[in-house]
Specification:
Chain A: Keywords: Cell membrane, Membrane, Transmembrane, Transmembrane helix, Transport. Chain A: Its main location: membrane. Chain A: This is Carbohydrate ABC transporter permease. Chain A: One of its GO terms (biological process) is transmembrane transport. Chain A: Belongs to the binding-protein-dependent transport system permease family. The complex is a heterodimer. The radius of gyration of chain A is 24 Å and the shape is globular. Chain A is built from 14 helices and no strands. By secondary structure, chain A is mainly alpha-helical. By secondary structure, chain B is an all-alpha fold. Chain B is 74% helix and 1% strand. Chain B has 17 helices and 2 strands. A two-stranded antiparallel sheet of chain B has the order 1-2. In chain B, helix 7 crosses helix 11. The longest helix of chain B has 38 residues. The chains are: A mainly alpha, B mainly alpha. At the A-B interface, helix 1, helix 4, helix 5, helix 6 and helix 9 of A face helix 2, helix 3, helix 8, helix 9 and helix 10 of B.
């Protein structure tokens, strides 16, 4: 192919820089503002990219044992317990459905896949949670979204693509279905299981819908609800008054945002290596 | 072949149901927790739609609440707020379809044209990231930039222009939502497009270049036909989803613009049902929405597969 023209290259470069900046600027701005002092914020309202007088005051306020610290613990707990449960159940189901000859597996698979096409709706889900006695319990943050049909499909097709000889060899050696799963299939699936765990973890970490619908006590609130109340709706943090003179309200709000984003930024590099393949597998089979 | 003792394939068919269940016992037991989950949280709630035909009282429950026939439906259809919510839903969905849908395609074409592997990977890493950030965080960030005390109004003020706050302007609401969706998911949407682009035969480009086709002609005659099945498939699937525009995203911002512009079908159901205890009417609206939505999605799914299935299957096999 012929060499690209100068103007073409320049325009392409410009668009790329703009796209990258559009994603990076808000994130960097939030991080910068969380370290900003009052004078930095007066100098440039909105977001402070590079604070001249960086301070950890906002974080001290947030971590002083108040609402945010409490919500953070709940979010971490829900994410850990939820992810572990989801991954175990998804592995079991994906493996159980990974061999076509298993009686009824096609029907069970269809039962799961069909849920991708319809949503029961807010009212019936809410009433079910109430009838099950899950209203205002932390379990309501985990159970209603425990298995994702999408992740199920991704994992199942991975299991199905393992070489048939592996299963045959395990059988010849006298391994039962469970032993084959634990000794042979799982060790070969570490990468895809890691991706699915991270997908689940991100969902639990960000979960807002369940929390808003099913929790009435604010001492059970995860971080997303605290974000909504104290950052979006701008109510001031209780118990933050001690530090308020030192840390500007806006910096405190941005510190809460940073705390909510940082875990995602930490797992993202690991996630990113694998997800393209996972997404494509799910996109066809779904 | 599934039996522990080697036996000719036809012998498998002779196993009775009981024997087959016994053979598959472990596998079926492993699927049980998952199956239970799907039944309890996706199928059982469907029974809850009886509320749409009842004068539901929470303290009486489904069992003892009085039947109301179709009065919940008639009262919903007589409510101007319902029609306003329907109008908003369609308007928001349409703006997103026209102005967001092409963005991932354009971005994928751009990414695909980057020769340097390193630069492409870097840009991809950056643009995929916001997909993993939750709506509460994204709405908060946007408020910080576009909101009253945010970056943009401040900049406008410094330039001597009126301080415009997009987050509280009802007229701009669909555009604000579209902007946020683009920020969150434009990069993510490129994944499928990039896979489709990878599958276009390189030979076609060379042949057309030899025939004298310029850059634009190759885009028009080779690239676009190559990815059009995927585009059509996604377009139809999007049309199937037209009654569902992001619940979380809209709920978080509805109060800032007011219900006249910010109410969609999902938020209507939420506020009428759970907030105001008008269970019957909101369940009726939810049921209508769910039925139309499911029919649209099923229809779109079927139609899309008929139209574009070859390109998509080829595209996704890599």
């Amino acid at each position: 192919m012929e060499k690209p023209t100068r103007t073409g290259l320049f325009l392409k470069g410009l668009v790329l820089v703009l796209v990258v900046a559009a994603v990076a600027y808000p994130l960097l701005g939030v991080i910068g503002t969380s370290f900003a002092s009052q004078s930095d914020i007066i100098r440039s309202p909105g977001l402070v990219l590079w604070p001249d007088h960086p301070t950890l005051e906002a974080y001290r306020t947030v971590f002083s044992g108040g609402v945010v610290t409490h919500a953070l613990l709940i979010s971490v707990g829900v994410t850990l317990v939820g992810t572990a449960t989801s991954v175990l159940v998804t592995i079991g189901m994906a493996y159980g459905l990974s061999r076509r000859e298993v009686t009824g597996s096609r029907f069970i698979l269809m039962t799961a896949l069909f849920t991708m096409l319809f949503d029961p709706g807010i009212i019936p889900k809410f009433l079910t949670i109430k009838e099950l006695g899950l209203y205002n319990t932390l379990a309501s943050l985990v159970l209603p979204t425990m298995v994702s049909a999408f992740n199920l499909v991704v994992l199942r097709s991975f299991f199905m693509n393992l070489p048939e000889e592996l299963y045959d060899a395990a059988k010849v050696d006298g391994a039962g279905d469970l032993r084959t799963l634990v000794r042979i299939v799982l060790p070969l699936s570490k990468a895809v299981i890691a991706v699915i765990s991270l997908f689940y973890a991100v969902t639990y970490w960000n979960a807002f819908f369940n929390a808003m619908l099913y929790l009435s006590d604010n001492d059970k609130w995860p971080l997303s609800m605290v974000l909504r109340t104290f950052v979006l709706q701008g109510q001031s943090l209780e118990g933050a008054s001690a530090g308020e003179a030192l840390a500007p309200q806006q910096a405190v709000q941005m510190a809460v945002l940073v705390i909510a984003v940082v875990p995602i930024l930490c797992v993202y590099p690991f996630l990113q290596r694998y997800f393209t393949k996972g997404v494509l597998t799910g996109a066809i089979k779904g | 072949m599934a039996d522990t003792t080697p036996s000719p394939p036809q012998a498998v068919h002779r196993l009775s149901l009981g024997q087959r269940l016994k053979r598959d016992k472990v596998m079926l037991l492993l699927t049980l927790p998952g199956l239970l989950y799907f039944c309890v949280f996706h199928y059982v709630p469907l029974l809850g739609y009886v509320v749409a035909f009842q004068d539901y009282q929470p303290y009486l429950g489904y069992m003892h609440s009085a039947w109301a026939g179709v009065s919940n439906f008639t009262s919903a259809f007589a409510d101007p707020a319902f029609w306003s919510a329907t109008g908003n839903t369609l308007k928001i969905a349409l703006v997103q379809l026209v102005f967001f849908f092409p963005v991932p395609i354009a971005l994928a074409l751009l990414l695909n044209s980057i020769v340097s592997d390193k630069v492409r990977r870097f840009v991809q890493s950056v643009v995929y990231l916001p997909h993993f950030i939750g709506w509460v965080i994204i709405v908060s960030i946007f408020q910080q930039i576009l909101g009253g005390a945010g970056v943009l109004p401040d900049l406008l003020g410094q330039l001597g222009l009126p301080r415009y706050d997009m987050t509280t302007d009802p007229a701009a609401f669909p555009w604000l939502l579209t902007l946020q969706v683009a920020w969150k998911d434009a990069g993510w949407g490129t994944i499928i497009m990039l896979a489709a682009l990878l599958n276009i035969d390189r030979g076609l480009y060379e042949a057309s270049a030899i025939d004298g086709a310029g850059r634009a002609r190759r885009l028009w005659h080779v690239t676009l036909p190559g990815i059009s099945p995927v585009i059509i498939l996604l377009l139809i699937l999007n049309l199937g989803q037209i009654l569902s525009v992001g619940f979380e995203q809209i709920l978080l911002q509805r109060d800032a613009v007011g219900p006249a512009a910010g109410e969609v079908l999902d938020t209507y159901v939420y506020f009428h049902g759970i907030k105001n205890n008008d269970w019957g009417t909101s369940a009726a609206v939810g049921l209508v929405k769910a039925v139309i939505g499911t029919v649209l999605v099923l229809g779109a799914n079927k139609f899309a597969h008929r139209l574009g299935h070859e390109g998509v299957y080829r595209g996704a096999d890599r």
